[in-house]
Amino acid sequence: MRIAGRSGGTMQTPYKIQEKKANLVQIKVDENFLKTLGITLKQGRNFDKKFKSDASHSVLVNESLVKELGLKEPLGTKITADWDNSLKLQIVGVYEDFHYESLHRTIQPAMLYMRPSIHYSEIWVRVRPESAGSTLKYLEKVWRKFEPFRPFDADFIEILNRKQYEQEARWQQITQPQARLRFMP
């Protein structure tokens, strides 16, 4: 389930890694993100609140980044912000690729980072189907306590994904017959 936020949870930014430039998708997370979404950590470690550097200088990167840049030993590799040489990050883990956009789009090199000083635009919660109704009511109650003047806005990711692919299927049904007619001799 995704709660509030419509500004999107990702952005692409240029970085330097071992003298190579790469535009990385950045996703702000907390230490529970991988577990919540069931994403496998392939190398290294996950974020841990015990390590103060995790909140400022540690990142997790996806397999696509490791592959695209040909990183033989990604753990410990330094990443520098292309716009600010003083911003030095260190790879502490590599996670399996996952689709954060449409399944039809290629997974881009990405990194996960934690920054308590930057507000989240979305909150993701894993909900058991049998308790979805009561969980939703509880989350709304908590939301109203902290954000009384902002509307509570929650979406079930499964429903959003289904709607996206239903819309794509409808579009295909509309365009495919026209394409066949257009290309017939």
Task: Describe the structure using short key phrases.
alpha+beta, about 30% helix, about 180 residues, 3-stranded antiparallel sheet, 10 strands, single chain, 6-stranded mixed beta barrel, globular
Short description:
The chain has helices at 33-37, 63-69, 132-146, 157-183, and strands at residues 2-3, 10-17, 20-28, 41-44, 58-62, 78-81, 84-95, 110-113, 123-124, 154-155. By secondary structure, the chain is an alpha+beta fold. The strands form two sheets. The protein has a six-stranded mixed barrel with strand order 2-3-8-5-7-6. It has a three-stranded antiparallel beta sheet with strand order 9-1-10.
Element layout with pairings:
Layout: E1 2-3, E2 10-17, E3 20-28, H1 33-37, E4 41-44, E5 58-62, H2 63-69, E6 78-81, E7 84-95, E8 110-113, E9 123-124, H3 132-146, E10 154-155, H4 157-183
Parallel strand pairs: 3-8, 5-7
Antiparallel strand pairs: 1-9, 1-10, 2-3, 2-6, 4-7, 5-8, 6-7
Describe the structure.
With 185 residues, the protein is of the alpha+beta class. It has 2 domains: 2-124, no CATH class; 158-183. Helices cover 29% and strands 28% of the residues. The strands form 2 sheets. A 6-stranded mixed beta barrel has the order 2-3-8-5-7-6. Strands 9-1-10 form a 3-stranded antiparallel sheet. The mean pLDDT is 80.
